[in-house]
Amino acid sequence: MCIFIIDSDESHPSKTTTTTIVGVTYDGGVILGSTDIITQLTANVFLCHCALGADTQVLLEDARNFLDQETTATVAAEIVGMVLSAYDINNKKNMLQTGVLLGGWDKNGGGKIYEIGFSGVVMEKSNFGVGGHGAVDLNDFLEKEWKKGMTEEEAEQLVVKALSLNNNINSACGVQTASVNSKGFTTAFHPYGTLPINAEKLELEHMNEKYLGKLELEHANEKPLLEYIRAHLLLLLNINEGL
């Protein structure tokens, strides 16, 4: 769980987040995904975080003061880590704890992903990085699903599938992605209904309602039977959600 607190009032309750962030390397680039927002730091460097958005602007604005459009992902990660560390040191009564994934591409290093910890510690990840809500389970999932030499499309599908496992996503939400490679960058928004896990759930719900509607017309005088069938279908739907 990632926590982001920046408040001089020690009695202020801790703020937590249910944001999930994922980064994956593919053949020739890197892609980041988030159930919240993704921020572009430079021409070829993006960042996502599991923190409370408004407060995070303090961190991002400070980091941008040290960046230019030619800054590599490696240097950008060190700068963001430095800013995090500075907040941690200088705010004795406050805490600035956040999970950050930073990804980018440059002609010398190719695609790079960095996890930046609470105190500014920077760790380069060779295949993928995760943070935020459900990070432990997602790490296990990506250990099994990540494959060397994936195409950009395959990597994006993997990121979207991983993020759709966040059970806090609802119909008002979706997934943001940003992909960076030698050709530049692309960003995308994947609405709730198109996410792999939720699309299956919505399709099952639609099929159940359609089937029940047909039964109600055919067996209008058999209400006990219909109630039993409805309860059974709802049970199957709940079991499917738990898988």
From TrEMBL:
Organism, as annotated: Nicotiana tabacum
Can you name a GO cellular component term? proteasome core complex, beta-subunit complex
Tell whether Protease is among the UniProt keywords: yes
Q: Can the keyword Cytoplasm be found in this entry's annotation? A: yes
Q: Which residues form a coiled coil?
A: none
Which GO terms of type biological process are on file?
proteasome-mediated ubiquitin-dependent protein catabolic process
Family matches, as InterPro entries:
Ntn_hydrolases_N (IPR029055), Proteasome_sua/b (IPR001353), Proteasome_suB-type (IPR023333)
**What is the protein name given in its UniProt record?**
Proteasome subunit beta type-6-like
Q: Which taxonomic lineage does the organism of this UniProt entry have?
A: Eukaryota, Viridiplantae, Streptophyta, Embryophyta, Tracheophyta
The gene designation is LOC107781217
Q: Provide this UniProt record's keywords sorted from A to Z.
A: Cytoplasm, Hydrolase, Protease
GO molecular function of the protein, one example? endopeptidase activity
